[in-house]
Amino acid sequence: MRTKFSTALPVLAMGLLLAGMKVSPVAAQTPAPASNNAAPAYPTGTETSLGERIAAILADPAVARAHWGIAVTTLEGVPLYGRDEAQFFRPASNAKLFTTAAAMQLLGPETTVPTEVIGDTLTTDGTVPGDIWLRSDGDANLSGVAFPYVPVAGESGPPADPLKAIDDLASQVAAHGVRRVSGNVVADDTQWTWEPYPDSWAIDDMLWDYGAPVSSLSVNDSTIALTVHPGMHVGDAVTVTQSPDVGFYTLDVQATTSAAKTQTRIHIDRAVGSRTVLITGEIAMGGKDVEQLAVSDPPLFAAQALRSRLLAHGVEVEGVARAAERASTVLDSFSRQAHEPVPDLPGPGMPLHTVSEVCNDGCGMVLARRVSPPLAQDVLYTLKESQNLHAEQLLHRLGRVYGREASGAQGARVVRQFLLNAGLDGNDFIFYDGSGLSDHDLVTPRATAMLLAYAARQSWFSLWKESLPIGGVDGTLASRFKEPPLKGHIFAKTGTLGESRGLSGYLDCASGRQVIFSVFVDNHMPGVSADRSAMDKIVAAIAASE
User: Fold this and answer.
1) pLDDT value at position 475?
2) Where along the chain do its domains lie?
3) pLDDT by residue (tens digit) across 279-308?
4) pLDDT at res. 47
5) Which strands make up the sheet holding 127-128, listed edge to edge?
6) Architecture per CATH, 114-324
7) Is CATH 3.40.710.10 the classification given to domain 9-110+372-545?
8) How many other CB atoms are there within 10 angstroms of residue 421's CB atom?
9) For the packed helices 375-385 and 95-106, what is the interaxial angle rounded to 10 degrees?
10) Vertex 232 angle, CA 230 and 235, to 5°
11) In terms of DSSP bridges, do strands 500-508 and 514-522 run parallel, antiparallel, or are they unpaired?
């Protein structure tokens, strides 16, 4: 997960206050009952050779003032080394380990979800009287990404059509014989509750792709790419294109062209609630700047995308694109919901719960239908790319299947019960979202190690482990651990959020055995990477010692 700061913060912050959004403080979290299992004792300090080497690494003045937490265990969960392993750290994207593990066990690696286009009826002349509806139960991959997903380093050829999935649906509608829609194209998001931003997300994240709002209808990961091209001469206006361009954002372009080889400084701003994007600054002649923006209203964007592709396939649409959304009906606070037990959560090997299809009997005529890739494929994409939105959608799906509604709070409730059932101490973790973008999320290294040990005993483990970035090979670890003996021998989830960083996973050691490790650092010096270098040295020390 990357963190990017925008000059839009003052404007966005005012807009958020006006919108009446609120953030629940961590202090409101209800203390949780501890697990019946006592936490195992970890060897600490410098009495072991590994502890001595780690102490030397962390004595470096560049990292000595940061807060470090480390847990190392066998694959079975037997502690080998610990340093502040029982203290809280911000997990950042290591939170995705918890969300995806719960999804693999409770939803199942092979489960899929449907997306449908529905109309009331179809006349003999090919007219759908009234509206047509786009509905989904949370297919996160309504995009141009090819599945099964294969991470490719470097250039991967020309970009795919970002609206390919929507185009496929529009093509089916036309093939069904539809020639005209007399009403609107409505994206129906009422399968889930409308809460686009998880509790305690930072306001300055909402502008960018990694802070895309959550919806059951997410087209192209609810992202639009803005590409800025310079003019022919110094002082010329720049050219800005959107992809995909379905008319969602209006661009106010005030940026200009600067001399070749000068610094490019492009600034993007958008007020909360506005669909006008302001582009200022300057770009050097011969340069190019690409910015990935979040779509502020995913259901409306989905409706616009479908309407545009219906027109492209020769289907006349007389109405406009609209969105239908539904507020939560659960009145309890996030904290109270998240701590409510889920008594019937199935354990390993037990039958899984399901939900009804998107279109039940009597809801209309299905004009097009798409089935998502299996959940295990989405988990692979989510972990390799550290995709925040997909993790949040998995959280909502868990809430829909096992909770009271498809919401972040109910998803957090299900994940919490899953972790308690797995033997984790309820006082060792606090999650406000599924991706780790919330800086109110807290977890201990020992809880993370315990989750990894639990996962190693499950039937879905091999698929889940393969989804983790591999050191020096792919995903968010492609540029780290690029040399032997670690290249290809570390399978771990990265995490970065402000001055916090994490790395947790599985490690092949020089001894031939595989161990579990979890390393977190909080409050490191801003704007430097010394903490990441120290973290990598710690992993190397673990591999050499064990």
Assistant:
1) 96
2) 9-110+372-545, 114-324
3) 999 999 999 999 999 999 999 999 999 999
4) 75
5) 127-128, 180-181, 316-317
6) 3-Layer(bba) Sandwich (3.50)
7) yes
8) 16
9) 170
10) 70
11) antiparallel
